[in-house]
């Protein structure tokens, strides 16, 4: 693995692998099928990216998330590695050129969604590609027993019929026993090497707090635990309101949701990543693919729908291995709200037919048309036109996606793209004959180079406009005109949710939806909701043990750091706590101390218990901090 270590150092800047990355890479390089279950932040992408750089050919990476796909392609390109993506936001011509580059160019990675896998266009090119590996990210999506089932994943194994010798690596953050069996069977993994890290995060303390004032409790958490934080809320409006409130309380915060423009989302994300703001208040649209190791606290202000989603989001805290906290704050009404939301998320077959018919009318699609086509989607406009409630339409769209009829991408952004559709000589002849377009064409070639003739390239109308002292709108208008003259292919930027018709338009009265499957999925979703509520409301079992049991992992010992374990320790250590309280009061009667000085003076055998005693005394008002963070007796 000496060469692999060199590659790791060269492209990722690390000198050693995390456990069990080295063993996974060894298995991939030996041509074996692999199933890898690594917790959030466990370095899954390196497990297929690094061996690909040691193998001849291209790695096909299948992932359902366009945002994550684009993020990984950008990261690879920034390291000087050739990577491309094919997704629902691209034109037929753009996809055509990208796939050609994967056959004839030196492309190492092709990312695509499962919906694109079995189009005739892809299958024909796939036959000609020199493929060294197929990587299936978010592999739990293949299982009807998982929390995010995607029917198109069931078709991935058909690639084995075309290239039976190409190994598969399936990756996910967590999976129950049933999901692991499903992944292996549905992907037809051949005697796979299975690697699974325990779901236990030894540095992450899981805490649940029941309260009548959730904002006050949040403030208390953020004041007690310093450092970067993510606060998850359910609605877009709540992100804005809570962020504004935190700023008023003196805690620098910003907010993030899918309703913001791409520029706004990118700007706020960068503010948070660079520590210009401490807290990101967000819907679950934020976090996937975010590489920030020093998040100290992840707080949920609403109860998530299931433990899989909660574990993944909570796991964004403490990736640097230092003590961190996953806190869930709730009151009794939240339990009822979750129950109502889950019931609402399982619409009837009749309602699904109604929404599908409305979509078909919205885009004026005839029966049998629309296969693979993508359309911008405005939820509020759609609801207004057909007199529908957005709270009911959204879960119906997700259910139609789950049934394999459409793909619904909520937070979609694609920058403007451009490709010259003629050769250099013909372009030069056009420049000579059309002097008014000459400065624009020269600026394009100067800024983006000869690659414009072979591939679609991301462009910025503002950057081009700056070079020519023209507005971005003027540049966009001229590029559209050049497109109509068939000089180039120009795809303006898109920043709206998208609906893609995975199947051609069906008769809404005879939708290919299996009623049995619909009902079994409903039952599963309700069971997962019940498990989530049980996790939140129980006060007697170690939180980590409950999570381990959910993921079919044997829990050997309590974690010792969750709220339940600490409460038990407190009860079992009342004598020690009383002693620490007495020593703290005695010392503070003599003079003021900082918390660190006080700990040194007491020299406690159980430092965590000492810290708990001190926090409790501060909470009760027995002692207090002054403006210089010195402790005094009340």
Describe the structure.
- With 634 residues, the chain is an alpha/beta fold.
- It has 26 helices and 21 strands.
- The strands form 5 sheets. It has a 7-stranded parallel beta sheet with strand order 3-4-2-5-6-1-7, with helices on both faces.
- α5 packs parallel to α6 (120-128), α13 runs antiparallel to α21 and α14 (349-362) packs across α16.
Quick rundown:
The chain is an alpha/beta fold and 634 residues long.
How many individual helices?
A: 26
CATH architecture of the largest domain: 3-Layer(aba) Sandwich
Low-confidence runs of at least 5 consecutive residues: none
Give the overall silhouette: globular
Q: In CATH, what is the class of the largest domain?
A: Alpha Beta
CATH fold call of the largest domain: Rossmann fold
Helix content: 40-55%
Instruction: Characterize the main sheet.
Output: 7 strands, parallel
Number of domains: 5
What do the pLDDT scores average to? Answer: 90
CATH superfamily of the largest domain: P-loop containing nucleotide triphosphate hydrolases
Number of strands: 21
Distance separating the two termini: 61 Å
Widest β-sheet, arrangement of strands: 3-4-2-5-6-1-7
